[in-house]
Design brief:
The protein is of the alpha/beta class. The chain contains nine helices and seven strands, in the order ααααβββαβαβαβαβα. Helix 6 links the parallel strand 4 and strand 5. It is globular and about 65 Å long.
């Protein structure tokens, strides 16, 4: 079986809600033979579900990942950039209103910011992302369609083979270096960019980071509602734990954190 698919399955079992469900199942399976251990598993599952659904805890979890400041339009490093590279972040498989498939909400956030940067800087855009598993349209093709049709922004390079961040960098290099493009503005979620930066630098790119979709910010003040479980907080905690797990895996496999 493909190593990438295996890692995706393992990640699904570790990340919320998969990891919580595994703890619950373990608790139920052990209840008759190891009551204390079973209760411990059930208690950990309940505590994990609460913590990962709490806005205050999620802010603490996500803040260290979003270490890159927003890109300033007056940054002097923009003067020598050659292209904008927008990383894919998933696709919506059932989108009949768009004729079949379209970009996911996460990818749309990146695409929107890429379009904004294009208008500000006038740089050509590259989009990167393939199909992780099964049939379907490559993420990059869906991103290119969204940029052209919804934002009226042209796309110069469309990389459709990659299935993870490492391959994003590797296959994008094959496209861009043909035209001697190495100085890029890299667009992705703020939490994801540090890992993506390392992958693109390893491929010889001179990278200027352009983070978007921040989940945290300075000077946060907590209210009662930040301690009440909420579905949107659980979604952010999934992304944060996914990124921590991704960094650990990249450190083990590529020596990059």
């Amino acid at each position: 079986m493909d190593v990438l698919i295996i890692t995706k399955v393992i990640a699904a079992l570790l990340l919320p809600p998969g990891g919580i469900i595994v703890l619950l199942c373990a608790g139920l399976a052990l209840y008759r033979r190891q009551a204390k251990l079973a209760l411990a598993c059930l208690a950990m599952a309940a505590l994990a579900l609460y913590a990962l659904s709490s806005g205050a805890f999620v802010h603490w979890l996500m803040a260290p990942l979003e270490s890159t400041a927003a890109l300033s339009a007056t940054d002097p490093r923009l003067a020598d950039r050659q292209a904008i590279v927008v990383l894919g972040g998933g696709r919506r498989r059932h989108a009949p209103e768009y004729g079949g498939e379209t970009v996911s909400s996460q990818t749309l956030e990146r695409v929107r910011y890429g379009a904004r940067l294009h208008r500000q800087l006038g740089l050509p855009i590259a989009v990167t992302g393939g199909v992780v598993s099964g049939p379907g349209v490559a993420e990059a093709q869906l991103m290119a369609a969204a940029l052209r049709e919804d934002f009226a922004v042209p796309v110069r390079w469309v990389e459709t083979r990659s299935r993870n961040t490492r391959e994003n960098a590797e296959f994008t290099r094959a496209l861009l270096t043909q035209e001697k493009v190495v100085r890029i503005v890299l667009v992705s979620h703020a939490a994801h960019l540090p890992r993506a930066e390392r992958m693109f630098r390893d491929q010889g790119f001179d990278v200027l980071l352009a983070p978007t979709a921040f989940s945290t910010g300075p000077g946060a003040t907590w209210t009662l509602f930040d301690w009440i479980p909420a579905a949107d907080a659980l979604s952010v905690s999934w992304y944060a734990t996914h990124e921590y797990l991704g960094r650990a895996w990249y450190w083990l496999r590529y020596g990059a954190w």
